[in-house]
Specification:
By secondary structure, the chain is an all-alpha fold. The chain is about 65% helix and about 0% strand.
Length: about 190
């Protein structure tokens, strides 16, 4: 009588067949594919916006003030940070929730992708949102010198609400990181 190792029957995922209902439930993850394709299209829109803003800055560089140039550059940085956020969501979300990209060993594999999971992705997204909010808040602070004048793009209440929202993002990110750390500590103790 020959005894085969238990792992041989489960050696590859392709050998396992799921019952119809679990197969349907597991296969439903592919419904997210159009969402990720839509985010890729949104990424293309941001590229167009970046080129448009860069063109505007380049063609008007001699006609605008240093403050307006700084605001334009901050706008470009904001577009880049949102674009980075899109890449994290597209690549990290697809890899985590839909299917493996099989990028191991590829020279352009993002460093963070090797240890991405839902928890890491949440924290990275929270940090990216804080970065985007910081740039928007910096733009507001630069323009805050015009408060009370007809040229003001913001009111005092508007500035206050931006600060409150930014602080809320920070508190939320700290809360997410704290909960993730508690859950990791609980895993290590178990």
């Amino acid at each position: 009588m020959s005894v085969q190792p238990e792992t041989s029957s489960l050696s590859s995922g392709a050998d396992r067949r799921l019952a119809p209902l679990p197969q349907l439930i597991f296969g439903s993850r592919w419904l997210q594919l159009p969402l990720y394709v839509g985010l890729i299209v949104a990424q293309g829109v941001y590229v167009i916006l970046f080129v448009k803003e860069l063109w505007h800055l380049s063609t008007h560089a001699l006609d605008i003030t240093a403050q307006q140039i700084m605001l334009s550059v901050l706008g470009l940085i904001d577009v880049v940070m949102i674009s980075n956020l899109l890449v994290m969501v597209i690549v990290g979300g697809y890899e985590t929730f839909v299917s493996r990209l099989n990028l191991r060993g590829h020279p352009d594999e993002p460093e963070w992708l090797s240890h991405v999971n839902a928890s890491v992705l949440k924290i990275k997204l929270a940090m990216a949102i804080i970065g985007i909010s910081s740039i928007a808040l910096l733009r507001t602070f630069i323009e805050a010198g015009n408060l009370g004048s007809a040229r003001a793009g913001y009111t005092e209440a508007g500035v206050m609400w931006q600060v409150i929202i930014h602080v809320t993002f920070i508190v939320s990110a700290v809360g997410i990181a704290w909960v993730e750390r508690l859950s990791e500590n609980g895993k290590h103790r178990a």
